[in-house]
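The record is given unchanged here:
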Amino acid sequence: MPNDQRATMPGGRHSGSEAAGWIVTQCEPLIATSVRNELDKAMVDLALDNASWVATWVAGVVSDMTRTLPVSDPWRNLSASIPVPGKRRMRRGDLVTDLTGQGAINPRTGKRFGTWLDAVDLVGAPASADLTTDLGLAALSRPLSDDASALVAFAADGFTKARESLEAVYARSREGGRDGGRAVWSCGADAIRWAIHRRRSYTGLDDPYPAVSGFAWLVRANEFASGQGPSMVEVELQIASQRIDDDEFEALAKTPEGDSDEF
């Protein structure tokens, strides 16, 4: 996306204290609900004032999470399509022609991506119809929006594509008379949660990398705001050090009968 369109997102350098607090809430389940609510609101307020910084931080964290998944994981191989104002579309993957409108498609199921069904290949089918009572799937009890689904897809191609998809979200929201910063954070927060959930399906709940990534991108978002980078060499080295073995998906994947919509 051209730089002049990128510049339409307001904002510049920022301390990132709100984002630092918010990413910790994704790693520590015992944080008080009132604190979570305060941090959620703080991130909305930050996105209203500084959509550019938030888009950079979100794109970095989501791309870190998705790009450390095994190469054969379906979540790294999604097809996706979203409209871009002033352009045709952003597209990704072989199944993109199967999309009507926008969003993403899971190559393993051939269905639209963004529901709990996309996680059962690793965590298994839920024990009951009430997903909020299922430890393995409660985080995915609400479906992803089309924009968030597409963000997860494009993030597998790296930070730049992830940020471009968020620029498109911002621009379309503004054209529709809605607040672009709020749309960027709504889409981004859900994409981060889902990407962390997928990574934890391999690593377990004690995985420190979501916090490591979140803190690292506080600095990189400011570098980006200053026109310096971020240093992609550093990004690639960190991703390489945290990448899950390529054969892990095939080793852990459940049998296809788990991919049902009976619930």
